[in-house]
Amino acid sequence: MKTALHIHSTINCDLLVIGVGGAGFRSAVEVLEKRPETRVLAITKGAHPQKSHTSTAQGGLAAVDPRDPVDKPIFHMFDTWKGSDCTADQNVIKKISEASWDEIIWLENRGMHFSRNPDGKLSKRTFGGHTVSFGKASAYRAVFESDRTGKGIMDTAWGEAIKRNISFLNKTLVTELILKENRCVGAVIFMENQGKFVRVLAGATIMATGGCGQVFKVTTNCRQNTGDGLAVALQAGLPVMDPEAVQFHPTGIVGPGILASETLRSVGGILRNRDLEPFMERYAPKMKELAPRDLVARAIESEIRQGQGIVNPDHNIPHVWIDLTHLPQSVHDKQIPEVTGFFKKYVDLDPKTELCPVRPSNHYHMGGIPTDEFGQVQTASGQVVAGLYAVGECAAASFHGFNRLGTNSILELITMGRFAGRKALAYLKEVGTETLADKTQGASFARFSRYLEATGKDNIGKIRNSLQTLMTEKVGVFRTGPELAAAVDEIKGLQERANQSALAGKSLIMNQELVQHWELDNLLAVAMIITESALQRKESRGAHYRDDYPDRKDGFNYHTLACMREFSKIEFDQRAIDMSILEAGGEHSEHFNMIERKY
After folding, report:
1. Is the preceding omega at residue 398 within 30 degrees of 0, hence cis?
2. CATH architecture for segment(s) 248-361
């Protein structure tokens, strides 16, 4: 007997914001500052908007003060281009880099407490891959709030949002987008606490659902980052761009995988192997620990492969050390107190006197829903989907290409949040705020009915754990064709198991197992397109490294576009990499060709 599901009610709003991390909040506030009467509905999967993953960002955000006598926006553009392994879009690089300092002023004017130096000016720290004079020296470019910069951004954006006409729905899932003739008119949502499906009709919709780190077993991502936005986009027939581009942060704390910020290396932390040798000079002779993340992550894994790792007795995991013992007391107490506290809490070590165990941990997805430089979502053919925008980690404009530089993520989310907010506001003015009626039910009921009607004895928690283990072992820092092909087959088998897995309870109200089944479906979908796309790209570029194809190849100078309406049946397309800075010519344009990547 089929379970009868129905739309309980309809909500009308001008702007629907799906996800309220830094990107979602910045978009909403941009609209509300310019047009206070706008009816904005923001929904979050978490129990509270301030539980967003943005709050966990530690080290800082890159931004060049136009008055800086040493640093220049063009240097930031170059570093981002080179760091991306020549795959980021140059129009996006230029737009975000040139807008960066305006966002610092915006945040500070609204109360963010940036750290300052003894002269009262904003303090700055260096991060991997950030240089001046096109690689001649490290750049001090990242402004920060101690080692909890993301929390400062979230507190500031939250404060600005609640001053204005914004409504929140917590513990709410977006189960599908409502598209009519290449226009988004809202979404179907599921309210966990009430167990009700609700139709939201909106003049414009902004997706800011965050990342998909829970695809992997060891990750710096929070529990709720299960790739929901990407899965919903795929379900709607939209592509995901560059899904194979997955970043592993070099220094995850061994055991929980929690982020040990790049700040540790920017303030002088040294990576050491089993023999206590500082090994980074062999991999990046000039920048050493401050090379881009993909290079440092591969260096650590290479040391472990060569038998130079240390096996952690508590977790039976090989790792290397990060040495902070030589740093002054003031650095520990004022610049990295939170990260120091993590080592004390999770591995019972004092970084002031003891070496700390680290190993690469899944961290960030450079891929995402393809957009233009204004955050407008695009189809595989490049056509803009009217009224639909994507920002933050779930989106790919692409500012990061195949490797993101540290601090560029929270810079991107606040700048692209502003751009998308402005574009959405212009769209609302153009088409009016009256929402379109829609009676379709789409795919939500079919999926949830399947969960409720399954009778198999398998356990979705075990399936999820198997998926995460598989992805970590076969689709990690180093990849090969045979392992990727085997992973594809195993993911298909896990999907079959998931389809047959029954729920212990059939209630829709506050049923965590039901939500976890939906999350598992999303994780399986995202895992499939990551793995298949990695198999298709027979080269190494940025964070995507193939042992069997170790070199970058010009034949792959494009963005991957992957569509998957039906599980495992993927249609691939391509999007050209924007080379507009190079093509415009002029001073310094030669630095934006397909350059060699040495550090």
Report:
1. yes
2. Alpha-Beta Complex (3.90)
> Would you call 293 a catalytic residue per the annotation?
yes
Chain centre distance of CA 232: 16
Return d(Cα 175, Cα 164) in angstroms, integer: 27
Q: How, if at all, do strands 376-378 and 384-390 pair?
A: antiparallel
- HEC per residue, 278-305: EHHHHCCCCCHHHCCHHHHHHHHHHHHH
> Catalytic: which of 265, 293, 298, 575?
293
Strands 40-43 and 7-18: parallel
Using the predicted structure, report yes or no on whether residue 24 has a pLDDT greater than 80.
Answer: yes
Judge whether 180 and 205 are in contact, CB under 8 Å. no
User: Distance between CA 161 and CA 159 in Å, rounded?
Assistant: 5
For residues 565 and 186, give the distance between their C-alpha atoms in angstroms, rounded to a whole number.
Answer: 19
51 CB-near residues (< 8 Å, 6+ apart):
44, 222, 224
> Rounded CA gap, 585 and 115, in Å?
38
Instruction: State the DSSP string of 328-375.
Output: -HHIIIIISHHHHHHHHHHH---TTTS-EEEEEEEEEE--BEEB-TT-
Give the tokens for residue 57. 């960002």
| pLDDT for position 338 | 85
Contact 183, 385 (CB under 8 A): yes
Q: How many CB atoms lie within 10 A of CB 472?
A: 19
**Per-domain residue ranges of the chain:** 248-361, 444-560
Q: Determine the Cα angle at 184 with ends 412 and 532, to 5°.
A: 60
Return d(Cα 373, Cα 203) in angstroms, integer: 21
Q: Does residue 1 register a pLDDT over 50?
A: no
- The per-residue pLDDT for range 341-359, each reduced to its tens digit, is 889 988 899 999 999 999 9
Smallest CA-to-CA distance from 487 within 464, 471, 468 is with 471
The CATH class that applies to domain 444-560 reads mainly alpha
Q: Provide the token pair at 27.
A: 């978009």
**Which residues are bridge partners to 240 per DSSP?**
562
SS3 321: strand
pLDDT at 503 over 90: yes
Tell me the DSSP string of 61-106.
EE---TT-SS--HHHHHHHHHHHTTS-S-HHHHHHHHHHHHHHHHH
441, two tokens: 């039910």
* Structural tokens at position 350: 């004092």
Q: What is the pLDDT of residues 438-489, one digit of tens each?
A: 656 678 999 999 999 999 999 999 999 999 999 999 999 999 999 999 999 9
Which residues fall within 8 angstroms of residue 43, CB to CB, at 6 or more apart? 16, 17, 18, 19, 20, 168, 169, 170, 172, 174, 189, 200
Q: In sequence order, which residues have a C-beta less than 8 Å from that of residue 106 and are 6 or more positions away?
A: 414, 418
Q: Determine the Cα–Cα distance for residues 6 and 8; give it in Å rounded to an integer.
A: 6
Residue pointed to by tokens 């979230």? 154
